[in-house]
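Narrative of accomplishments. A recurring question from our advisory board has been how the design workflow behaves on a single, concrete structure rather than in aggregate. To address it, we present the structure tokens for one chain from the evaluation set, followed by the sequence designed for it. No filtering or post-editing was applied between the two.
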């Protein structure tokens, strides 16, 4: 997986959905501290995050981003998991299944409120 979408690579089509995809990849890189090309074989950053998220957020998130302990740690991890899920929506293979940027902003604003409540 790289920042270029499938539709851009195959057909040269550019749209706001391409921007959403790239934004999602950038967020995945930010929260995992991994690059899309760090994976071998058919595994991509998006796939690794999707598979690992089900097991534990702590396994995929850059440890420098989460510094709390105890009850606050779990709240922070829940917030990060929400961000990662929104990010994966941005990285859907099909442009029709990708969320639009307005909805992404809305999701992130709700998550910000969650974080401030921690």
């Amino acid at each position: 997986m790289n920042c270029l979408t499938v539709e851009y690579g195959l057909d040269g089509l550019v749209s706001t959905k391409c921007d959403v995809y790239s934004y999602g990849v950038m967020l995945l890189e930010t929260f995992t501290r991994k690059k899309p090309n760090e994976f071998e074989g058919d595994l991509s950053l998006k796939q690794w995050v999707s598979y690992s998220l089900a097991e534990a957020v702590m396994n995929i998130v850059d440890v420098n981003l989460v510094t709390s302990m105890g009850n606050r740690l779990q709240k922070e991890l829940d917030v990060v998991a929400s961000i990662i899920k929104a990010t994966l929506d941005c990285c859907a293979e099909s442009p029709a299944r990708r969320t639009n940027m307005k909805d992404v902003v809305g999701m992130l604003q709700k998550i910000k409120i969650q974080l401030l409540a921690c």
